[in-house]
Amino acid sequence: MLRITENHKMMMVATALLFLLSQIPQPSYSPQNVAIESPRSTATEGYGHVSEIKYQWQEISGFCHWASSTMALRSAGVDMNLHELFAISGIGFSAAYVRYEDVMTILPGAGYRQMVPLDFISEIYGLNYSLYIDRHSDFAELYAQAMGIWGLDYTAFDGPNEALNLMRNSIDEGYPLVIATDLYYLPPKDYDIVRELGVTFDLSGAGHSVVVVGYNDTSQTAWIVDPGVGSFGEYFGYPSDGRWYYEVSYTNLSIAWSALGYLTVLVRPESNPVSDIQSRLIDFICDRLEGNRTSYAPSQEDLFFLIFGADAFRALSLDLNLQGLSLLLDEFDNHQSRVAAIWHLGYMTEFTCTLQYLSFRTALQELPGLFPSFDLTNAISIGTEALPHLAALSNNTTLICTNPSELGGSLVWDTIIGLSEEYNIQCDLETAIAPYLDNVTIIGDHLEVIADSWDSFAAALRQVLSGSALYPTILLVVGSASLFVIMVVVVIRRTR
User: Fold this and answer.
1) Quick check: pTM over 0.70?
2) Taking the alpha carbons of 15, 17, 22, 24 in that order, is the dihedral positive or negative?
3) Whole-number pLDDT of residue 254
4) Which residues pair with 199 in a beta bridge?
């Protein structure tokens, strides 16, 4: 067991740093009333700073990209909070399952194709959403392929000088940058554990989104607003000491930024929002819940190993048994790799379900305020049926803690991680799974109920949408009939 723990400690730290969430109450707003105003920027020769950026904390490992995107959207005039973003982007209502050869994992909405939902938000709110990548990066070809598949445009530029010029120009305009970084090179004390373990991006594959709000060429430093501090580990808790705002040297910024190919997101106001936002958003949310393949993976609809929405939970349930696990382990050629595969399945299932529970729950709570034109009471009641089952598969400690030896006491962890440890001893899956079969069945049942609830929730939302479309027609017919009756009465009276 100790060997498994040590082999996965770096993976846990890395995964924990990929995601982060917020529970701070913030004002809601109607998506039909969006005031787009340019933020104020202080800019002189060699110096620039975007002022009045309202901070968004992530709160728990799992949502760094979305908290950073929330701040970028605010700077472009769309003053939503993180929970509203979970709803409007469909993140809280999305999931994906990948089963191919030696991969068997479920992904939360917050972790699948992070750039695409923001592109949708920019379209409906009349924003300009721009992606940038260094053409000389090791990731350039991968990004090009991915953006092509997803139908997204991006701009390629040349190395650190152009990246810093992009930073200066955007901040001088009054808009911050969302950038992907290797947090090994970021100064907050929260990331000391990364440096202690030597967990650079090259080793972990873990990136972290932050917001660049200012620069000073004289001191060769940039100002960062970081949603991730206080989201995990020893210093967990809201960073009331203000350490979410700090300076970093151009040198360290370039190293951290270049590790992920200088990937940059800019959001600016461009035009007016589209008409009928609420109906389009409800239709989009339904597509996410139902797992509409075109909504999730345009041009990839035929890839059998990608499953989305409600069916993602259903597919994992069908694979979570002796036969499914046997097929997974057959892909590995040594015992320790098989043990690690079961361990990884358990960890990622609990990690994903926790993220999904938090984002789904908060997105669900925001719907009435976001869609005041619709009566969503019944639909939300149906969606709420998934919450206790997601909660049963969740454990916040998995997102906060960076030491596997401190985890346990939850259904998924004790079952699947326990199974991996038993298999490590028994070297026979059928023998090892026997003590855990009842719990494996219970986990599968929870996944099935979640899937059924999401399907029913989507159906109820579509019924609301179709009912709202019929209502004006019915009103017109009734009104016309009433007018006709009144006219007949008037004519009869005058004749008499």
Assistant:
1) yes
2) positive
3) 95
4) none
